[in-house]
From TrEMBL:
Family membership: Belongs to the anti-sigma-factor antagonist family.
Name of the protein: Anti-sigma factor antagonist
Protein source organism: Actinospica durhamensis
Origin organism lineage: Bacteria, Bacillati, Actinomycetota, Actinomycetes, Catenulisporales
All copies of domain STAS, residue ranges: 24-134
Pfam families the record matches: STAS
Gene Ontology MF term list: anti-sigma factor antagonist activity
Domain of life: Bacteria
Length: 150
């Protein structure tokens, strides 16, 4: 399995951002023209705003704004974490990209299913599957579920 890594052979030089807080560690970088974000610890209301801002900055620099989230080390996520994922998805779709989640902990999978977000934030077992989904979807933004107004 090829793990994406900041500064790796396929990473775009000049963009890598790492910022730890007391409960969240997050590393964001550009690779293959997409954003990769490795998260660990607790993603909650105290860290969500900073993470969302950093993702937005990286998405503006990426070719399509797509984001691959690596979540195997995430131990907690509250509703503000869902907001981070949905915000990244909205920005990605606006740029013709998408979002893929890899290594999603069971507690978060349950939350995504219960909220209905699992259909919009697909989870994959391997990094390669996530990359393939994002690269295949490039140039093809998914339409919103409900496009009509009342």
């Amino acid at each position: 399995m090829t793990e994406p890594s900041p500064g790796g052979a396929r990473a775009r030089p000049g963009y890598s951002r790492r910022f730890p807080s007391s409960l969240l560690s997050a590393e964001i970088w550009l690779e293959r023209g997409l954003v990769a974000a490795r998260l660990g610890g607790e993603l909650d209301i105290y860290s969500a705003a900073d993470l969302g801002a950093a993702l937005g900055e990286a998405q503006r620099e990426a070719d399509r704004g797509s984001v691959l989230f690596l979540l195997e080390a995430l131990t907690f996520a509250d509703s503000s974490a869902l907001g981070v994922f949905v915000g990244a998805l909205k920005r990605a779709r606006a740029a013709g990209g998408g979002v893929a989640l890899v290594g999603v902990p069971e507690f978060l999978l349950k939350t995504l299913r219960v909220t209905g977000l699992a259909t919009h934030l697909p989870a994959f077992a391997t990094v390669e599957e996530g990359w393939d989904r994002l690269e295949t979807a490039s140039g093809r933004a998914e339409a919103p579920e409900n496009t009509h107004t009342q």
